[in-house]
Automatic annotation (TrEMBL):
SUPFAM superfamilies: FMN-binding split barrel. Residues 34-150 form the Pyridoxamine 5'-phosphate oxidase N-terminal domain. InterPro entries: Pyridox_Oxase_FMN-dep (IPR024029), Pyridox_Oxase_N (IPR011576), Split_barrel_FMN-bd (IPR012349). NCBIfam families: PPOX_FMN_DR2398. This is Pyridoxamine 5'-phosphate oxidase N-terminal domain-containing protein. It comes from the Bacteria.
Length: 205
């Protein structure tokens, strides 16, 4: 059962307020530091919500795949995935979004909160081309808030520590899981795994 408002912990008694420096670092527009990080960005998660539920969608590309259109606007392409397109369906109902960027090797996050819309503008799509391909549509985000976020979660997870990868080596593979979920022959798991790995490393655009 979800916690009811009248029984929810008193947050102000549990946590001190953010420092003045942290509060002043939350801006309504991009500055040079944000632009530099966005130019280097290769991965972020896009959070959306709608009447049918919530979605957190991973997005990735070569450095520069997120385009800064001006100090209040960024854009990125929507490339093929699993075709659930939950983010896009949510945007038809609710424009509010949150973007959380991770930077390999860095102990900081970049966060953008704002309002988003889908666009099929030809000039924008041409600007968002990757791998010689033009996306079907782009997502344009108007920045409401932008801030850097401390990387304590990265340190706790030892995310960039090569030794951490060893902890996941024995996890079930996609081929094994997909075959089991579809009621297929377990002997086909290897072929399914190979097909999946080819798709996620070659069929990118």
């Amino acid at each position: 059962m979800m916690t009811q408002p009248d029984t929810f912990p008193d947050l102000d008694s549990l946590y001190p307020p953010p420092s003045e420096a942290i509060q002043r670092a939350v801006l309504p527009h991009l500055i040079a530091f944000h632009r530099t990080y966005l130019e280097a960005a290769t991965f972020f998660c896009l959070a959306t919500g709608g009447a049918d539920g919530l979605d957190a969608s991973p997005r990735g590309g070569a450095p520069g795949f997120v385009k800064v259109l001006d100090d209040r606007t960024v854009a990125f392409a929507d490339w093929p995935g699993n075709n659930r397109i939950e983010s896009l369906r949510n945007l038809r109902q609710e424009s509010r979004v949150a973007l959380l960027f991770l930077f390999p090797g860095q102990l900081t996050f970049l966060r953008i909160n704002g309002q988003a819309r889908a666009s099929t503008d030809a000039a924008l799509l041409e600007r968002l081309q990757e791998g010689g391909k033009t996306p079907k549509l782009g997502i344009v985000v108007q920045v409401d808030q932008v801030l850097f976020h401390c990387g304590k979660a990265i340190s706790r997870a030892r995310l960039w520590d090569p030794a951490s990868q060893e902890l996941t080596q024995d996890l079930p593979g996609i081929g094994q899981m997909k075959t089991a979920l579809m009621g297929g022959d377990p002997s086909e798991a290897g072929a399914v795994e190979a097909q999946y790995r080819h798709a996620v490393t070659h069929d990118l655009y």
